[in-house]
Amino acid sequence: MAKFKKLLSIPILAVFLLVGFVYYITVFIFIEDWVGLRSSSGSLNALIFTFLASLCVFSFFVCVLTDPGHVPASYVPDVEESDEQTNGNSVQSKLCDKCSTYKPPRAHHCRVCKRCVLRMDHHCMWVNNCVGYWNYKAFFVLVFYATIASIYSTVSHGYFVFVSKGLGVQWISPAQDFLCYLWSNDGFLELDTWYSLGLAYLPHQPQHDNHRGGLYNKLIAKFPTFDMPFSVVFFLVIIYTDKKPFFYQYYEGIRTAWLTRKSGQNYRHPFNVSAYRNITLVLGPNMLKWLCPTSVSHLKGGLSFPVSRDSS
């Protein structure tokens, strides 16, 4: 029961409120007012978005409630293997100053959790947990589903904006139609900015009375876009999953590379194996299970990892 206390935090409650807000305005305001939930297209869009939102929430729960992994108290690194994997760094460099115990490669001490975490990526306040060895896949899948759901909502929104011309929508010009949609509704600039530029624009509101549709447009015009941040985060996760964890390991790799090249030696990060191999280490060898956050049977102990010399 102790792990469920992680759900009782302000950032996690904020995430639930945000997801609920986006889901409500997308399904019960936008889809309902434009095509109707009882229509075939409305039911299909609501079903797809509900499915994506459910997968996102499920992955979020898995990421929050899964222990990222801790270093066993009995862990003692092999001297020769440790020296070789860290390009000559001594075993003493793997001694945690805070815990006063040895830590395996890619493990780091979390100041928030006050312990060493296996393959620590970072401590995420939005999941109230460290992202590490055992929940990194859940984090990856969470960002993926959130990105797909956000893009689906935005694309659906844009589609119905342009096909709604037949519903008596007041537009300015084809070019300004696109620009007004891109900027005002996708959150790069607020609607007030376009008014200040002289581009008076009523956001795709039909001539018939549609109070909730107008409410939706006002809300969307005032809130930042949701697909862009998730897309950027997902892109970064993919890039650095291909190489190494993108917070601690990334800057540690930069420092080690600088020191190695300064001494006149060639440097290759020890964990920089092939892209496909690194991805399968996180998601698993079976592609059919890549998007299942609970499919982690491929994970081992998290105390050792393939190095570049193994793939050469």
Automatic annotation (TrEMBL):
It is an enzyme of class 2 (transferase). Residues 92-164 form the Palmitoyltransferase DHHC domain. One of its GO terms (molecular function) is protein-cysteine S-palmitoyltransferase activity. Coiled coil: none annotated. The chain crosses the membrane at residues 7-31, 43-65, 138-162, 219-240. Its EC number is 2.3.1.225. Keywords: Acyltransferase, Membrane, Transferase, Transmembrane, Transmembrane helix. This is S-acyltransferase. The lineage of its organism: Eukaryota, Viridiplantae, Streptophyta, Embryophyta, Tracheophyta.
